[in-house]
Amino acid sequence: MFPGCRPGLVLARSVPFRYNRDMTQGESFVFVSYTSADEKWATWIASMLEGAGLAARVQVWDSLPGQNFVEWMNIQLAGARWTVALYSQAYFASAWCTAEWTAALARRTLLPVRLEPVEPPATLQVLTWVDLFDLDENQARERLLYAVGKQVLPRLAAFPGRTSASTATPIFPGATGAVGHLHSEVERSDPAVTLATALSQLGSTTLAVRCAGIRALERAATAESADPALIDEVTEVLESFLRGTRNAKGARPGAVAPEDLLAAGRILVRIAKNRSFDLSGVDLRGAELNRTNLAGARLAGIDLTNAWLAGADLAGADLAGARLVKVWLKRADLTGANLAGARLDRATLAHARLADADLTNASLAGANLIKAVGLIQKQLESAEGDAATRLPAGLVRPVSWLA
Questions:
Q1: Per-residue pLDDT at 401
Q2: Is the pLDDT of residue 186 over 90?
């Protein structure tokens, strides 16, 4: 929902400041710097940027509970290709915001946007800015996208004489006191358009654009009024996107999967709930999927190395040949799961439920099975382990295991 005021004049100083850089290229993101008083503006701006194919980082969406706020902020400022600073009286009164715009100015990534006719500090007056106040929503969106290189503005001039009141009727929660939020914008949009735009973004060769498409799908599927049919569509799109990465040539570097795959996997598991899905062979290394419902899921050959699955429900899941190296499965339910040929080296399975799980040729080298529930000697005899494998009380190391 657009948090503006009313249509009107555009100030002469309101032109975009650029550092001679193409803002639409590269694996980059835009960081939105704002104070809590302007949160509605921040989310509207972020949604407009992502709708145009850019990835945006905004605290209210991206700073997770329990995360070190100072560390997170420093990471955003250091990694952002552009920092969009939302100028307002409240912004300049905030010590945190002062630190943010100072850091962005030093890195030459600052792109100023005024939300009200406020005079910036002398240090910032050498920079020109973009004004979003006294505009309707379409004008504000055009100005914003022009500033980041995603829109070409027409060279038009407004009639300087007396005019009648505008007939436009955009929603202005900032002026009226009504509260708008992201879900309202999603709910008003056409789901078909949302899906089509996201599909286009998911096909991009740029990571930031793909992430923007994934986030748009998440917002559409988690809106309060999201139709079950739309959720099914989003589930299929995310599942197809993840499966489409299985045939990528060459091993992916690093200990964790790329950001877009992790985001797609997390969102899919969140919205799918009791829906069946197939993530066989998908790369989700390092994924955080604690206490998720993956019961009966088709996960054969999936790579969950270094993933977090504490308390996850994997009962009856097909994990044949899966890479579960160093995975955290404490208290997970693996009852009846197919783990034949899976790599569980140095995995943590303490207190995990393993009754009737198929461990044929599964590698348990260095795995922690202390207090595993339902595990029997016959299952161990069919698996492979070593001297470092930790077993529950009452079970013994098979003689076939390596010493």
A1: 87
A2: no
What pLDDT does residue 159 have?
56
Domain extent, residue 392, equals 278-403
Residue 17 lies in a domain: no
- Asked if residue 106 has pLDDT above 80, the reply is yes
Q: What is the DSSP annotation of 299-330? A: -TT-B-TT-B-TT-B-TT-B-TT-B-TT-B-T
Helix (H, G, I), strand (E, B) or coil at 279: coil
Amino acid occupying residue 344:
L
Kindly tell me the sign of the dihedral angle through the C-alpha atoms of 170, 41, 123, 62.
negative
- Closest by CA position to 298, among listed 283, 320, 274, 313: 320
Tokens of 14: 């309101």
SS3 state at 200: helix
pTM of the entire predicted model: 0.56
Q: Is 42 among the domain residues?
A: no
DSSP H/E element including 298: none
User: Helices marked H in 244-327 — which ranges?
Assistant: 259-272
Does some domain include residue 346? Answer: yes
pLDDT in tens, 201-233: 888 887 777 888 888 888 888 877 778 888 888
In whole angstroms, give the CA distance from residue 61 to residue 70: 16
288: CATH: 2.160.20.80
CA 383 to chain centre: 37
362 falls within a domain: yes
Q: Look at the chain and report how many structural domains it folds into.
A: 1
Q: Are 373 and 357 in contact (CB under 8 A)?
A: no
Mean pLDDT of 310-327: 94
